[in-house]
Amino acid sequence: MKLINAELRGLEVIADKTIKMEILMEGALLETIRPGQFVYIQIGSSSEHMLRRPISIADVDSKKGLLTLVFKELGEGTRKLSNMREGEPLNMLIPCGNGYKIDQIEMTNALLIGGGIGVPPLYYLAKELVKKGIGVTTVIGFHNEKDVFFEEEFKRLGNCYVTTNDGSYGQRGFVTDIIKSEQPVFDYYFACGPNPMLKAIESTLKDKKGFLSLEERMGCGVGACYACVVPTQDEKSSKKICQDGPVFHTGEVKI
Questions:
Q1: Is 54 annotated for ligand binding?
Q2: Which one of 15, 148, 183, 191 has the largest count of C-beta atoms within 10 Å of its C-beta?
Q3: Would the pTM of this model clear 0.85, i.e. be above it?
Q4: Is 56 annotated for ligand binding?
Q5: pLDDT score recorded for residue 98
């Protein structure tokens, strides 16, 4: 993990209050990033916003020296990020946390499941899996049609199913409804999104192996403050999401 100053290349609105940010930075550092890791980014000055914001990494292009982040405007801090201009500096800790350990497992097919702002980190994961010759099926869920993004990007990598809570786009319902109806073939699944979604996925796929990436507010971002702890499944100990996670094996922590 390094504390760096990088340069904003550009911003693009890709869905309702959803921003794609491209950042210029050193290619050698980008090569160290694993899918599922995140950046811890400073908003303005430390006097304005004492706590940094964790934002998942959506894509990496080490040849072009480009890092892609996707975030949703949820408050004053992310609103300030979305109003930045090309060329402005960004102060970040990168890469943070533990990502998906795809080099340590053997598989032929993978199922990726994302909900809302949990979708972005799965895109870089999907690209890396495809590079390894692994078949990828993606299921992404949103509240409504205005929230949908990255569908075409995932379709270029494999099968992609979209669901919305209100049925305004794709299939009406939740990501678990798609899993039950389509019954995709896979060896491991990788999920990222809100805790209720992750709990439902664990229950639906209780006989399958997988990994869950947790979304959580953080304090220090480096494991010192214990602001983002989650109990282990047996409740005998705890894990720090910022340091031990955000990615965990299914059954490792109690959501």
A1: yes
A2: 191
A3: yes
A4: yes
A5: 92
Looking at the domain 102-215, which fold is it?
A: Rossmann fold (3.40.50)
At residue 215, the pLDDT reads 75
Give the DSSP H or E segment for 112.
Answer: strand 109-115
Find out whether 87 is annotated in a ligand binding site. no
Domain ranges of the chain: 2-96, 102-215
Cβ 163 vs Cβ 174: under 8 Å: yes
Annotated binding residue at 196?
no
What's the CATH architecture for 2-96? Answer: Beta Barrel (2.40)
Residues of the chain with pLDDT under 50: none
> In the chain, what is the straight-line distance between the N-terminal and C-terminal CA atoms, in Å?
27
**Residue 228 annotated as binding?**
yes
Burial class (CB in 10 A: 0-12, 13-18, 19+), 11: middle
- Please indicate if the annotation marks 96 as binding a ligand: no
The pLDDT, as a whole number, for residue 241 is 86
Furthest-apart CA pair in the chain: how many Å?
Answer: 51
